[in-house]
Amino acid sequence: MISPHKPDHRRRVGVERSQKTRAHILESAVGVFALKGAHAPVIDDFVRAAGISRGTFYNYFDTTHALLHATIEWLEDDVFGSMEPEAAAIPDVALRLATATRMYLRWAAAHRRWCAFVTHVPQIGTLARRRLLRDLRDGQKSGVFRFPHVQAAHDLAAGIVAQAVQRMAATPRAAARTDEVVHVMLQGLGVNPAELQRVMAASIPVSARPAKSASLFKTGSND
Amino acid sequence: MISPHKPDHRRRVGVERSQKTRAHILESAVGVFALKGAHAPVIDDFVRAAGISRGTFYNYFDTTHALLHATIEWLEDDVFGSMEPEAAAIPDVALRLATATRMYLRWAAAHRRWCAFVTHVPQIGTLARRRLLRDLRDGQKSGVFRFPHVQAAHDLAAGIVAQAVQRMAATPRAAARTDEVVHVMLQGLGVNPAELQRVMAASIPVSARPAKSASLFKTGSND
Among B52-66, B91-105, B118-132, whose mean pLDDT is lowest? Predict the structure, then answer.
């Protein structure tokens, strides 16, 4: 006789094992993309890095492009998701944008391999950049930000963060200067000096859910 | 009897032909790098694009890396060199940096293929970024720029230009907003409002020596 519980149990074990393999492929893929860039790697690079067969790879991903997409999605969810709730809870838009950027740049400074990864895979952060556009419009409406066009303000905020991350990747032992970067960013957005001093003096919230992928990028801080 | 003039003439013709072939390889390489990025192309891509033999290619360049390096050097010299003398002649540092950045972004807006190329080959512009650092230090010393650290100011100026160029590449039909970008850049560098208005009102010099490579990147302006 067939027990009614056994198939459920087996299925659950199967699903768990499958999730574990998928996570393992994604984790190994981070190293490959960091080394070779977003578009150069071939399937054998990922198969070798994960220590799996090509057949197993194809059970999870059809193409290297699909794997890149899944890796980006996982990291955005993991890394930005680990900071998002704390920053999003701040109602004041200048303080919210300042705090979110300070949190992110400090995390990047403490995980220099992340900086190298993002330099090679600039598609990372699209989600964060979309949220940025909303914050810029809110801040312009409320008068705390003053700039001639939201597109130029977006170029400034997205550009300075990307450039700081690239610099941290290129000079991993140099001081990260993260708060100085956020200072000139706010100055560029037209935040007045008193307001700027106030938001930069605020303490930075501690993330309630640290990024699971952090260990992949950890190389020490020089902030 | 051997005429004493003939070998010289032959040598000169040979050198001219050789320079012409080299220029042709460089020009064709621009299209290959723009399409495939800085590191993905193989020698056959360049051989096919230039319509030459592999043997001819190797007469000029040992590796694709050497070709990349030569292409970058040629374009930096040609594109930045076509604007440099006019901007460098301006003694006032805020006006000089504003004018150089306005000239460059307008040129980029009128040559959207250049924007796509630079997005794929971000090594372009290293020379310009080094000059930038010198301008930032000069401006900080004279008090016209106010920022907490020159590295953060550099992240801002280099980052906003790179981001604006990427945006122009991604949305080739949208307005380029180049002067708005320079406005928020100067604001971020701490230029006071009166000074900012003054430098943005200045007329832009016309380049005495237009870039030879311009036709490779021309796709029309939307500024």
Answer: B118-132
* Chain A residue with Cα closest to B121: A120
- In angstroms, the CA A46 to CA A28 distance is 7
**Eight-class DSSP state of B203:** P
- Kindly list the domain boundaries of chain B, sorted by start residue: 1-62, 77-208
Query: Cα dihedral sign for B58, B64, B66, B72?
Result: positive
Please choose, from the candidates B166, B144, B187, the residue with its C-alpha nearest in 3D space to the C-alpha of residue A185: B187
Compare CB distances from A184 to B37, B153, B177 and report the shortest one's residue. Answer: B153
Q: How far apart are CA A93 and CA A136, in angstroms?
A: 8
In which region does residue A206 sit, left (phi positive, over 0), alpha (psi from -120 to 50) or beta (all else)? Answer: beta
Burial class (CB in 10 A: 0-12, 13-18, 19+), A141: exposed
Distance (Å) from the alpha carbon of B181 to chain A's nearest alpha carbon:
5
Q: CA-based angle B82:B88:B91, to the nearest 5?
A: 155
What is the residue type of A104?
Y
CB within 8 Å of B165: residues ≥ 6 apart: B105, B108, B114, B115, B118, B119
**CATH code given to domain B77-208:** 1.10.357.10
Side chain identity at A206, as an amino acid letter?
V
Q: Any idea which fold B1-62 has?
A: Arc Repressor Mutant, subunit A (1.10.10)
CB contact under 8 A, B164 and A158: no
Q: Does the pLDDT at position B84 exceed 60? A: yes
Chain segment A31-57, per-residue pLDDT in tens: 898 888 888 789 999 999 999 999 999
Check B185 against A188: CB less than 8 A apart: yes
The topology (CATH level 3) of A6-217 is: Tetracycline Repressor; domain 2 (1.10.357)
Which of A39, A155, A165 is the best substitution to test chain B (most B C-beta atoms within 10 A)?
A155
Of A161, A167, A185, the CB nearest to B188: A185
A199 half-sphere exposure, CB direction, 13 A CA radius: 28
